[in-house]
């Protein structure tokens, strides 16, 4: 099989592979009423091969069909033509030398996923040392069966911020700009940290997604096509005079587990350890860290119940299985303000 992959020669191994393609296509055809139409099934992972099958209209352009693989780009693919008794190839971006120009419904091919480019280190302007600073960030892409303006791809950017000053501060508006290789802005979004007011020495986080169901009119809401890097800027400031300091809510008995569909679940309780009641709801959030102790992912969950002093409530923060969840450690915190 390794020799076949290197030379794409017609051999007994090739015959067995063609049989496997036929079986996959037959299995999909048998259950096509339950399968999602107009999509490539069993897409390859980055840097790997897969036996993929097109489930859609006949004579669909190969590039258009392979584009349904979402975040993984198929850089080349092969099909053994039984009439010509030879291989037809498709090479992404090189239609002039490709012979496999279209795909028919239930046609099986051998597809290769392009190696994913490393996520560039972001440029950040977090303010001066001793203030609210950006500690680390991460970007990753996913796909979803839920379309937003017809788009299934998602780009996620998460960041960890810390108040290194001696007083309570706010990270202010956090602005994220995404650029392509030509240095054009292909995505822009503003957000705030999970902690509206960050106490001295405290670490919190933020998370944004392109596209999103909710966004401002001056922001982009498309998948940042061709993105290569991103910039994050903070605008730290003192709390406004109308704002009170956050109350002391703490998390307890945190348990991490893999649940349905291999989603990561972090569960526990939030307790109001303050002398003031919490009446407007609050957020509990989790930050996942990689082996280099940089932020890997972040997610939050809102509770709307009123917590009196000493009262507790259960929480659950989830991470889908298609997001980075192979963490080295996690931090779970809660944030709430008084009436």
Count of helical segments? 3
Q: For the terminal residues, how far apart are their CA atoms?
A: 67 Å
Whole-number count of domains: 3
Which oligomerization state do the chains in this entry correspond to? single chain
Q: Could you estimate the helical fraction of the residues in percent?
A: under 10%
**Counted beta strands:** 20
CA radius of gyration = 25 Å
Q: How can the largest sheet be summarized?
A: 5 strands, antiparallel
Mean pLDDT: 85
Low-confidence stretches: 1-21, 23-27, 29-35
Estimate the global geometry from the Cα principal axes. Answer: elongated
- Relative strand content: 35-45%
The secondary-structure class comes to: mainly beta
Order of helices and strands: HHEEEHEEEEEEEEEEEEEEEEE
Strand order of the largest sheet: 1-2-7-4-5
């Amino acid at each position: 099989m390794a020799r076949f992959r290197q030379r794409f020669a017609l051999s007994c191994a090739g015959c067995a592979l063609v049989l496997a393609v036929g079986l996959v296509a037959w299995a999909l055809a048998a259950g096509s009423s339950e399968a999602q139409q107009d999509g490539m099934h069993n897409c390859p992972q980055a840097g790997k091969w897969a036996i993929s099958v097109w489930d859609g209209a006949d004579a669909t352009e190969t590039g258009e069909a392979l584009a349904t693989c979402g975040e993984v780009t198929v850089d080349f693919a092969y099909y053994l033509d039984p009439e010509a008794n030879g291989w037809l190839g498709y090479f992404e971006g090189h239609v002039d030398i490709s012979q496999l120009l279209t795909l028919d419904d239930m046609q099986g091919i051998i597809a290769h996923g392009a190696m994913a480019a490393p996520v560039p280190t972001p440029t950040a302007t977090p303010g001066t040392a001793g203030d609210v600073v950006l500690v680390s960030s991460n970007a990753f892409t996913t796909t979803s069966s839920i379309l937003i303006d017809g788009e299934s791809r998602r780009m996620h950017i998460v960041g960890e911020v810390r108040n290194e000053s001696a007083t309570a501060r706010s990270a202010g508006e956090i602005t994220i700009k995404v650029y392509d290789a030509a240095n054009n802005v292909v995505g822009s979004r503003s957000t705030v940290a999970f902690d509206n007011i960050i106490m001295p020495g405290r670490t919190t986080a933020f998370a944004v997604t392109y596209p999103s169901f909710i966004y401002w009119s001056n922001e982009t809401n498309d998948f940042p096509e061709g993105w290569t890097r991103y910039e994050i800027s903070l605008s730290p400031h003192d709390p406004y005079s109308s704002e009170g300091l956050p109350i002391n809510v703490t998390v307890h008995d945190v348990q991490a587990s893999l649940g349905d569909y291999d989603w990561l679940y972090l569960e526990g309780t939030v307790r109001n350890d303050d002398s003031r009641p919490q009446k407007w709801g609050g957020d509990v959030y989790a930050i996942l860290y990689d082996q280099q102790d940089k932020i890997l992912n972040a997610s939050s969950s809102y509770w709307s119940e009123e917590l009196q002093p000493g009262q507790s409530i259960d929480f659950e923060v989830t991470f889908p299985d298609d997001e980075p969840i192979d963490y080295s450690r996690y931090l779970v915190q809660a944030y709430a303000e008084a009436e």
